[in-house]
Amino acid sequence: MFGGRRDWSKPFRALIAGGGTGDGAIMLAQQLSNAGCPAEVTHLDVSESSQRIARARAEARRLKNIRFERGSLLDATGPYDYIDCCGVLHHLEDPQEGARALARALAPDGGIGAMVYAPYGRTGVYQVQAALRMITQGDAPAERLRIGRQAVAKLPVTNFFTKNGFVTDHRSGDAGFYDLLLNPVDRPFTVRGVAALAEGAGLRLTGLIEPLRYRPEAFIDDPEIRARLARLDPLQRAEFAELWAGNMRRHTFYAVKADNPAMLPAAPDNRQAIPIPVDLDTAAIARGFAAGQAIKADFDGLAVRISLPPLAGAITALIDGRRNLGEIHRMLTPTPDWLVFKSAFDTLYSALNGLNRLFIRYP
Predict the structure, then answer these.
(1) For the chain, what percentages of helix, strand and coil (3-state, to nearest 5) are there?
(2) pLDDT tens-digit profile of 67-87?
(3) For the domain with range 12-119+188-257, which CATH number is right: 3.90.226.10, 3.40.50.150, 3.40.190.10, 1.10.3290.10?
(4) What is the location of CATH 3.40.50.150 in the chain?
(5) Distance between CA atoms of 253 and 190, rounded to whole angstroms?
(6) Residue 210 near residue 355, CB atoms below 8 Å
(7) What is the pLDDT of residues 172-200, one digit of tens each?
């Protein structure tokens, strides 16, 4: 959202809208604290019990940069530099109203990160939800849970839900079962639906996570089909990927205000760009690249393989989160032509950034 150019020495205001028991708020507050950023993270939630747990987690970590507010995200006031809304919009009676409320609370140069459920990877969930609603309507939650568990235990093998191995939330306990199959409001969004949700709130998408999942050319090797895919725009290719893969259970997306031209996805566009590895053993990865020159990934059974140029291994070995591209280029022996180096790095970056393992920041 910030193009790798956010100055983290400046004040930063973040809102965790529907913060629950605090996963997002605690993580972000801790990261900002570690970075020495003068930041304030607001944890907003309607649940007193959830917020009590989040408060205890903040106290255990001695975090002083979290503010707690009870209330609905529909009443959020800003401006906030960043708004996080994970797993909430799809449970609102009117998700579009929720998205508009968040957009109103967003600073002009801020960004929103959100997650909503997707329909195809949750095939069977909505049929079972509808069926259980028919036989538990009017019951108290505990009774709905009892009957729901009893009924699901006797689902026939012909039911789509029994065939869907990607959804396992109901096995994690009562809370997981209730959230998945008994939630009174659960509206999934396709990729096109996510784009419409953003547009309806005056926002535009800057990214879908993980990016590689939304590039069908990463898991389709037929040259004729890939040529036809190349004629589609990025959103259409993401739509195709969702339809073709069939296993996407959620969409995590980032967005900025539609009239904010400055915010572009971070890309390495000059020698000052600093590659930042995340959860990545660059030395081990470099050895693997040298042996096979490819990146392999598995997205819930969907195999992805990305071929890499010969320089990829040597470049990866020099990525340490401090050196910029100019320094990495000069350290290679023999030093290749800049354009050759940049082309190799761009391919490497596209693949690893597509897996959420390599990012860019600028000094």
Answers:
(1) 45, 20, 35
(2) 999 999 999 998 999 999 999
(3) 3.40.50.150
(4) 12-119+188-257
(5) 12
(6) yes
(7) 999 999 999 999 999 999 999 999 999 99
